[in-house]
Structure formats: C-alpha cells, structure tokens
Fold:
Amino acid sequence: MGNAVKAEFRKIFTTKMWWALLIPAVVVAFVANLGIALLQRSGQADIAQISGQTVHVPVALLSLGVSFGITSIFAAIYGAMAISGEFRHRTIGTTYLTGRSRGAVLAAKLTAYTGMGLLYGVTTLIFATLGALAGDGSDALPAGGSWLLVSLVGIVIIMLWTLFGVGLGGLISNQIAAVVILLAWGLAGENILGVLLRALNAPSLSHYLPTASANGSLAVFAFDRFIAELRLPPSANLSDLQNLFQIAGLPPWWVGGLVFIAYAAVFALAGWAISRRRDIS
Structure:
C-alpha cells in the first residue's frame, strides 16, 4: 500500500495540473485577505451595529473562510480531473497492472489525493495569512486560536471536496463531463434546486445540499469565532450580524460538517466501487 501511494504522488508531481489549479486558488486567497486587511486598516471594518453601538468585527476571519471556499472548488475539480484523466488517456490499465489489485490502487489514489487536499488547504492558509499581513500587519489578524481553528475546519473541508471530486471522476470517468457537472452544480444547479425547495415550502432542506452544507459549516463556525472575539454581552442582539454574514437559519456548524462528510464518503466509496468493476478494455 505504501509503495502504491508513493507511486501516485510521483505521478501527481510529474504533471502540471496540480499547481496549475493551485495557483489561481492561492492568488484569490492572497488578494481577498489583502483587500479585507486594507479595509480594516482604513477603519471601515467597524460595520456591525450591536445594541445601537458600532463594533469592530474581525472580518479577516470572513475573508479566510472565503479563501477556503474558493480553493475547495479548485480542489474538487483537480480531484475529478486527476482520476477521470487516467480513463481518458487510457493510463489506468497500466496503473492497474502495476498494482496489487484494483481495490488497492484505488485506495492508494484516495489516500494520495486526500494528501493533495491537505496541501491545497495549507497553501491557502499560508497565502491568506501573507495577504492579511501585507495589508495591515499583525493587526489584521484576529486571535491566533480563532485563526487556526477556522483554518483547521477549512482545510478539512478542502480535503473532503478533493475526495468528493475523485469520487465523481471515478463514477463518470469522462473528464470533461466531470468538470462540467461540478461547475454547473456549484454555479447554478444548487441555487436552482434551492429555489424549487423554497417554492415547495421546504427552504431549510437547501442547507443540506453539498455546497451549502460545506460552506455553511465553515461560515457558522467562523461566526461563532467572531462572537467569541467580540466578547459581546449576553443581551446583545445578534440578528444583524447573522444577516450580515448570511447565516441566519443555518444549522449548527457540526451538523453541516457531518452532512458534507457523508456526501464526500458516499461519492468516494461509490467512485471506488464503480472504478473497480469498470471495463477498461
């Protein structure tokens, strides 16, 4: 198993796709956090009204969450393209022949691409932090504990999105179709389904769709850290802040996280099972 995982990493790092998709993700992370830090330095980040008083919001945590959300899109696309590309270019046959079994090869792929999701997440964290520091120095960063906790949740979500993409690529095996489905679902499909659910008087169900559950989990967790940073009195009205960050009505962060873990697990295992039995002749 260890040799199979090493072989997968060698295959990954001898191609350009992993860094070609990582570069735009980290550029967005850097620019988003730079912009928020400059906004904070200008004093325009004091935007929340709590009990009639304007308070300073540690908005760098919000930009960090946005960074992980953007990177997760690239990570999912990378995972889908990586495994479906083997079917497209017919290199999967050689991969299977050099492995102990199809199951072992596919398990090694899932392990390796989980590691790539970790790489995407950590790199996003580094560039997001550099962007915040470039914009306003250490004053741009909230408390270290909050920053690292939100980062941890974001990195886990990126890893899960990578597995989700690998599973989808294994299910479809058509590289172009896998990418189109991911983009179409993320950009329009889930929103359209959300509108239909609202029309059916079931708007809360939209919170449990894949993208909504992943992004909602991170957004709610970050909001909880905001509240901890602000040290508001128990009587404070939080509805304005909840509306500001568009998290009103969302389930607890751990609920959304468990839902998305289930999505990633189902797609990863389904892709593994289908690829194991697919005819590659």
